[in-house]
């Protein structure tokens, strides 16, 4: 396990160095089929990680947001989102990050969130999570009224889930902020927020988060409470509040 944790960190640092060459620079922004933005930084960062994986672990598979699947039948699959939060990246904010996950036989094994601007590297293996080498833990907030809730896009909740229930949940928390994408999950795992929700997610958005949130002592499920990789949205929390959040969002 430690070998894979160390290699995920290596991928994060290599891709982060490349991404920072393009940060706050005059690069072209394209739109993908789903109208989400993409840049040369997304593509080159994924290419960098794919090359390193294929050199180190030629028998492993790769699933990447920008370039799809490689060696899809392999037992081990590296799942890559080179820039999670491209809208933040092109807007010059630091909230974007790189997501690196490793599946074994379809189950999340290792995950990493890397914030290149701040050099924060959070890695988890389901048993523990470490931020730049130091143990990270979710905090023990007991009541929704004391909780900090994060989300990525308010409008998307109404498009894909029960927007009214979500609005009601917001009113029950201490405060809420759109510190979204991978940064919201980073905040939950490091004890600075209590709840993070996304109403719609892809595989490359989810895999890295599972070992991190669980390793930090939190809980992560699908929006309906099912397994996080089962599809749809994601709810992550400090664990203590998870059932309350599920009930609030699902009735």
Structure report:
The chain has 251 residues and is α+β, with helices and mostly antiparallel strands. It is built from nine helices and 15 strands. The protein has helices spanning 2-22, 40-56, 86-90, 154-160, 163-172, 182-189, 203-206, 209-215, 242-250; strands at 30-31, 37-38, 61-64, 68-70, 76-84, 97-104, 107-115, 120-124, 129-131, 134-135, 148-151, 175-177, 195-198, 219-222, 234-237. Strands 4-3-5-6-7-8-9-10 form an eight-stranded mixed beta sheet, sandwiched between helices. The longest helix is centred in the first third of the chain and has 21 residues, at 2-22. The chain is globular, with a radius of gyration of 17 Å.
Summarize the structure.
The chain contains nine helices and 15 strands.
List the helices and strands and how they pair.
Elements: H1 2-22, E1 30-31, E2 37-38, H2 40-56, E3 61-64, E4 68-70, E5 76-84, H3 86-90, E6 97-104, E7 107-115, E8 120-124, E9 129-131, E10 134-135, E11 148-151, H4 154-160, H5 163-172, E12 175-177, H6 182-189, E13 195-198, H7 203-206, H8 209-215, E14 219-222, E15 234-237, H9 242-250
Parallel strand pairs: 3-5, 11-12, 11-13
Antiparallel strand pairs: 1-2, 3-4, 5-6, 6-7, 7-8, 8-9, 9-10, 13-15, 14-15
Helix pairs in contact: 1-2, 5-9, 6-8
The dominant shape is globular
Major beta sheet, strand line-up: 4-3-5-6-7-8-9-10
Low-confidence stretches: none
Query: Terminal Cα separation, in Å?
Result: 39 Å
Helix content: 25-40%
Overall pLDDT confidence = 96
Q: Work out the number of β strands.
A: 15
Q: Specify the number of helices.
A: 9
Largest sheet: 8 strands, mixed
Helix and strand pattern: HEEHEEEHEEEEEEHHEHEHHEEH
Rounded to an integer in angstroms, the radius of gyration calculated over CA atoms is 17 Å
Q: How large a portion of the residues is in β-strands, by DSSP E?
A: 25-35%
What structural class do helix, strand and pairing data support?
Answer: alpha+beta
